[in-house]
Amino acid sequence: MERIPERIDSTFRYVLIAARRAEQLVQGARPKLEVASAKPTSTALLEVSQELVEWDYGPPPAPEPEPLAAEEPAEEIAAP
Description:
Elements: H1 11-26, H2 40-49
């Protein structure tokens, strides 16, 4: 397994980033380095381990809206 850069906090995130990069390569993106292997996954893992792939955590999640207060049933009006 390639070296995981210090900026990447877990193996799970490393694999996610590499998988997204491999998908880009499959769809026709140019590799950022020349490697002997033509496999997109191997190329993506090398690119991520050498910190050639830009990534970010993204925006923080939006706060969840406050739950609506339970509505009290309306009073029934008796028919005359």
